[in-house]
Amino acid sequence: MILAQNIQMFWYFDMPIQNWDKYKVFWNIISLPSIDLIAAEYQVISHFFLGVMIFIYSILAGLALILILLYFEKKVPQIFTMAIRLFITIACEILFIPIVIVLLLGVKYSNSSLEYFSEYEKANKTDGIRLGNLGEFFCALAVVLLVIFGVFYEACSYEIRHVNDGILNDGRIQAKPEVVNKVVHFCNCVLYVSIGLMNYEVMLILMFLLYCIPSVYIVISLHCYSRLLNTVKAFICIDCALICLFFWIGYRIDDAQVTLILTLIFQIVLIPIVKEIVDYRARQIKPLSQVLYLKFEVFERSIRPLLINGTYKETLIEKMNRNFITHREKLNRISQAYYANDVLGNCSLGLNKIFAISHSGLNIVTNYQVFRCKKFLKTICETRSESFKLYRYFLDFSKIKDTDRNFCELYHKFFINMLDHHPELPKLKSLITEVIKDLYFLETSYSSLLMRFPNSNEVKQNYGSFMLNIICDKERGNRLISRVDTLGGRKKNTIKNTLKFISDRCFLVISGNPSTLGKLLFFNQNLANYLGYSYDTIKTLNISHFLPKHLASKHDMYLKRFLENSISHVAFKNSALCLVDSQGYLCECNANCEVIGYENSVNFICAIDPLGFRIRHFCLINEYGYIHGHSKYFATVIFSKLKYIEGHFIQEFFIDLDIKNIQYDEITSHIIKGQINNIQIIKKIYVMLKESKIKSSILIFLYITEDENEVCRWGSTNDFYDMENINPNDNKIETILTEGIDEYRESTLKKKVSIFDEKKLSFDGLSDNGLINDRSKQNNAIKSSYLSMNDVVTIAKSTQVLKIAKIVLLMSIVILIITNIVILIYISKEVEHSNSLTALTNLGDLGYYLSQIALIVRSLDLGTKINIPAFYNTIDLENMISNLISSQTKLLDDFKSWSYCKDSEVVKNNVIPYSVYENMVKTKYGSLHAITGMFIEKSELILIKLRANNTNYENELFFIIFNAFGSSFEHIYQAIIGLKNCEIARVDELSSVNNSLMFAGVGILAVAFTFITVYLLTIDVYLNNLWETLHKRVMSGFIEVKLHLTERLAHYHDLVEYSDSEPLQHSAKHQKKVRFRHSLRYLLRFSILFISAAIFYIVSAFVFNESIHKFLYYRPLLTSTLIQRKIKTNELCFFTLENEFQYTNASINKLYPYFSPMQDIHNSIYELVELIESTKITLRNPNIMKFMSADVKGFIYEKYNGTRAFMKLGTFRALSFLMQESLFIVMDNKIDEFYVVDDFFDEVKEYSEATKAISMEVNKDSKNFINLQVSNLIYFTSVFCVMWIGLYVGFYLPYLSNEVNITKYITKLLMIIPNTFEIRNR
């Protein structure tokens, strides 16, 4: 498909070379996968273009929506994500070339005057694609978006994992060749659209050179893991380059047959050639030993088979580590991570490798692969890796503890604020909400964490005490506390479960981040107890503080070295270690350490098992006997006068001890002498030398004891490091001679036992047992938290009132919206009718055509009878008759639109008098439609006779003249005036109905506001009773809660307890009752809605509705005025003509002496002039002038580009000039020359054409202006409706829901606050 889409760009349909017509069909078929050609074939290229635009911007909108959801931490529907992926794949992979071509055509033709696409054979019009500057901009933007999508698609859609999927393995190490290929496709599309037709040869040469770039790049890089895919991709690029070259050759030698033959032959030859090229390049890959320190791109090609088959196991990780040290490329770490998981089956090691590097920076392509790898391995480790689960435990438990501490402080703060002299209601609500939310979070989090780690003593203690002392759930709390293991013995071999929770096991997490290397991130309380540190002190320390000095100085270096060269996630396992306690002594332990990656860093998780009680002591020495550190009573046992003998040699105390010759694990005995309290003492000491290896470091321990039972345990390695607790009463120490030794034993026993317990603090000087007994007594005194029936009723009433307020507000908004929608529908419907004025326009056109036909017929009649050139010809008459027929049809078709008007009766009823000559003049009555039909019939007869040079048409002429300018025409004119008045009356009715609807809406809102006001006034009693109940309960349980909170903060969070609360409690008892103005707060917030509704109605009534009414009122007035001026101009012209020929035998008075209603022509002209002058007042009305655009105003009042001088100052003055000309011709008391009348008629013709065009523009402008006002009203109403909906959804609904929740939260607080004391009603 990609090959066919590329071939499309190498030719065009009318290439000027020989034999092209023979082979054009072949190339057309080959290029069919390019969808734009199919669209062009069926002449739907414009539709395809619009579809592509919608498609691209839909992808953009979808991605934006996903980002918004992610920003607000909302879940993105999976089907939506899959749809966006499918769309991007179609746009960036399957149809990339045709979509780019169509979008570039949009850029090309948006501002073009070309009618057809020159790129396609079929006549595809560009009308649907010519969108102007805006279209050009959006097309260019769509092209840019598509290119960006394409580059990111190629950069992010590939699989970098080295998986053995056979010859069709679609994985690849990098995306650069694919990105280059995509850019080449885009550049070729640009060349094809821009210069393909103008510079065909240049385009082919440039395309050939461009195709050579990805061809060479693919062959050199061999970026795909599959040899077959490398061959296919190279073949496509090379084939495109050669076909492009063949088209150029065919064009140069002017023969299309050459191009076809070369293309077909090379398809067969090229396949083995490309295969051989790829195989040759693969054979040039150097062995691993030669590329170890080269760039990873080269290094990866050498180790690719090893990454897939896993022959080298961990050794390959070592090689890759060495390459990474030389070239710190992220792709190296990504490959290591996938290799560790897929081949070595060690997901934790893979996670450590990938989390050691960051996925931030400008290299988006590689950083995305880092992010993807992290996400993949993190998902796997969450189910498989115990160390990762443990790390997540520390993260979650730390977050829970922070929330727990914050809850305690917040809970105490709530009590303090509640007992204040003047409590602030908003602050109390905020505190209650935060307290309950934290409470729910802690309940859920503790429960979830306990389900995941049921053996964690810390979770059980924290959760149990939380349930017992905070939530007052004594049954569950006591059950959890009873499940805490304290001094339970440890069976042998439990050490194999290195990361399991055991009662006395110490855990700590050490940072592997270079900026905080060695810092303690997390630890459990056992560690603090074991080493004798307080919680606040230990969390600020580095791991080096717990190591002997000679190890601490180099420990950071060891950590860095391990992180760089690690081939396993286990740092060490079951290793004998010693840690330095808070006093500087060494503590014996067994340790396990694993490495886990998280959040752009790797960290060390250590599980430390303190050894059980032992009657032995030890020191840490080097091979020469130099003491680096020792246990607490080591110096006492060997009669040293110094408490610390660090820095001395062991030979100073054991004279006969030869360190160099002593064997490891060999027990020797030595006699030492010393003095205690000036008493000489001799005792036998047993000595053993032990070695512990941790990676490349060796620790040498020297153990001593004077207890024979302890020596018996030294014979077995398992027994030597067995951590089973030993009862100290069963161990006998041979020599107890001094008080110092007793002190030593008691202290040792005390310390060794205490490390297994969580820290217990006394309260008010009581011992642990005393505190427990005291607490039991208090618990017996505490009354159960309960709710009385009055409390239940109060809560129910408060909740009910708030819910009803929510419903009333919703109904008010719904009524507002429905009322305004009804008003808009009614206004739009009426405006559509009133704004069209079709009936008035058609009636005016009918009157104009009647008068114009009469004028033309009379002009032709005079030309025939007195032998003068006619001012019109028969073609003019025929055109007018045709217009009149059309106008007659429209008049009848549009009758329903103005049938409501009384004057519409003229259309169908016989109420119009008309004159006919049937041997004598008769007056008859008929409908406007019938009279118009007779008028058309008479006019057509005259036209036929005139063309036959027959002047026998006196009867027809009589009908036309005396009915066009007689009483019949007067009825038409009066119907126009009446229809104008009906339209004005309808506009007034529209305004009246609109005002009624608005008043109805305002009335309903007033009722709703009154109801909600009265209803909310009742809520104060219920809510204040509820708050008063809470206040009493707070006062009742404050001391008890304060006691629990202080103990919890001190016991579990190491915070100083709060100051004594008695003064506060005492002052609280003298407070007044709680009284808040809840209803006033609600009404102030609800008034926003009603005030906005009032503003809306005021603006709608006095701005939009008033404006629409005013312009609808003046529009029929303007239309009727323009009609009058057109018709009366024809009458003026007719009477002027009759005046000139009234003394000839062809005058009307001479032709029809028996019926001469036109005796006083002068008066008729005067009346016409006065009537036309009266229309000037209407046209000068400022409200009328608002209808007109600037151009139309200029044409009427300022300047019109006419051929005659009288039109230069506008049509308004031009008509005045025509009236003056008419008066001049009539009043000069002489027969004017023919050219004077002829000029007058030419001027009238030009004026009529100008008036016709300007009337159409005025009609369109006025109509658009009113439509704009209606549109503005719709927009204004829509904005307010959306604002009201948003106000309800975004403000009132959350606010009222929060208020309902506050009542629920108060209920929850009433259930958990202990009711310790009886408080009298104040």
From TrEMBL:
Residues in TmcB/TmcC TPR repeats domain copies: 398-491
Pfam families hit by this protein: TPR_TmcB (PF25474)
Keyword Membrane attributed: yes
Lineage: superkingdom: Eukaryota
Key words of the record: Membrane, Transmembrane, Transmembrane helix
Record field: transmembrane: 48-72, 84-107, 134-153, 204-225, 232-251, 257-274, 807-827, 997-1023, 1082-1104, 1273-1295
InterPro entries in the cross-refs: Tiny_macrocysts_regulators (IPR052994), TPR_TmcB/C (IPR057352)
UniProt name for this protein: TmcB/TmcC TPR repeats domain-containing protein
Keyword Transmembrane helix attributed: yes
